[in-house]
């Protein structure tokens, strides 16, 4: 192996040969360097690569070739040294972390060895019998579809289980009759569960916050507000006899488009504000106020 002093001497001689444009000496020194065992430490200490690197654009083709070969070989040596240093630093850092917090390392090992908890199995309700089973099966199927899992919320309950519970409550509510009232109530529930304006309802049901026996509460805030307005309208209308209502074609029904309406007016606000006009379409029964 070449000594550090030998390589330092060769570098000095190379720099002199380059400065004096002595191609013969330059070529001889490069040939000697290509035979020498040069380590990463020697390269860093002598900065030999800088001197040889300048010769890659030399006018002499043989000097160019020798200098390029040396530089490429030394680059590989530098890359290998950098990779080894990176691995050593990584190992040292891991050792330091383990020594500074041994309790944490032991805890992590214990956690890895700890058996994972078995997934919770949701108990499925048995399929009820009685009534029109075809209608009841279709009801459960559509309710389950309306309660299908979403990406936004993690459900606590199982959609098939909740669908069975709601259907069973409907069946019980109407004493086993699966005709008109049962179907009407189901359509209302199904609409409210799928209503994009009322996502909180579906989430409350699947988290167990709203149970099947509270089906009367399964409506959006907008629907509840509309119901309240209708009830208020009916209360006001009950105060006015049919004879006190005026028939007119001045108002167009927003539902059927006909101009066959009756209206009456009541003072529903303070006396200094205009009266409220209540309209009813005699063609389709639609009601509104203005």
From TrEMBL:
Gene Ontology CC annotation, any one: nucleus
Domain TFIIS N-terminal stretches: 5-81
Start and end residues of each stretch annotated as Disordered: 81-137
Single Gene Ontology MF annotation: zinc ion binding
Composition bias, Basic and acidic residues: 84-97, 109-121
BP term (GO), one: transcription elongation by RNA polymerase II
Domain TFIIS-type, residue spans: 249-289
Domain TFIIS central per the UniProt entry, residue ranges: 135-246
Major location category of this protein: nucleus
Subcellular location: Nucleus
The entry's keywords: DNA-binding, Metal-binding, Nucleus, Transcription, Transcription regulation, Zinc, Zinc-finger
CDD domains membership: TFIIS_I (cd00183), Zn-ribbon_TFIIS (cd13749)
Domain of life (superkingdom): Eukaryota
InterPro entries xref list: TF_IIS-typ, TFIIS/CRSP70_N_sub, TFIIS/LEDGF_dom_sf, TFIIS_cen_dom, TFIIS_cen_dom_sf, TFIIS_N, TFSII, Znf_TFIIS
Family from the record: Belongs to the TFS-II family.
Described function: Necessary for efficient RNA polymerase II transcription elongation past template-encoded arresting sites.
PANTHER family, per the entry: IP08861P-RELATED, TRANSCRIPTION FACTOR S-II ZINC FINGER DOMAIN-CONTAINING PROTEIN
Name of this protein: Transcription elongation factor
Species this chain originates from: Planoprotostelium fungivorum
């Amino acid at each position: 192996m070449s000594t550090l002093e030998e390589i330092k001497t060769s570098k000095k001689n190379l720099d002199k040969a380059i400065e004096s444009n002595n191609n013969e000496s330059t070529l001889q020194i490069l040939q000697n360097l290509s035979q020498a065992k040069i380590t990463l430490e020697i390269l860093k200490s002598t900065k030999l690569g800088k001197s040889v690197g300048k010769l890659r654009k030399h006018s002499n083709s043989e000097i160019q070739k020798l200098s390029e070969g040396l530089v490429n070989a030394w680059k590989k040596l530098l890359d290998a040294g950098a990779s080894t240093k990176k691995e050593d630093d990584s190992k040292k850092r891991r050792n330091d972390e383990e020594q500074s917090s041994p309790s944490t390392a032991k805890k992590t090992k214990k956690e890895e060895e700890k058996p994972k908890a078995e997934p919770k199995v949701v108990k499925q309700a048995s399929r009820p019998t009685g009534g029109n089973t075809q209608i009841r099966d279709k009801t459960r199927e559509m309710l389950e579809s309306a309660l299908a899992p979403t990406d936004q919320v993690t459900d606590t309950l199982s959609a098939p289980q909740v669908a069975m519970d709601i259907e069973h409550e409907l069946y019980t509510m109407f004493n086993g009759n699966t005709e008109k009232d049962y179907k009407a109530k189901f359509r209302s529930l199904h609409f409210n569960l799928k209503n994009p304006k009322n996502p909180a309802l579906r989430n409350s049901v699947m988290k167990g916050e709203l149970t099947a026996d509270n089906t009367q509460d399964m409506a959006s805030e907008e629907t509840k507000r509309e119901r309240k307005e209708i009830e208020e309208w009916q209360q006001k209308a009950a105060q006015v006899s049919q004879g006190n209502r005026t028939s007119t074609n001045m108002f167009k029904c927003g539902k059927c488009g006909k101009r066959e309406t009756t209206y009456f007016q009541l003072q529903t606000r303070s006396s200094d504000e205009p009266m409220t006009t209540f309209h009813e379409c005699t063609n389709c029964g639609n009601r509104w106020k203005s």
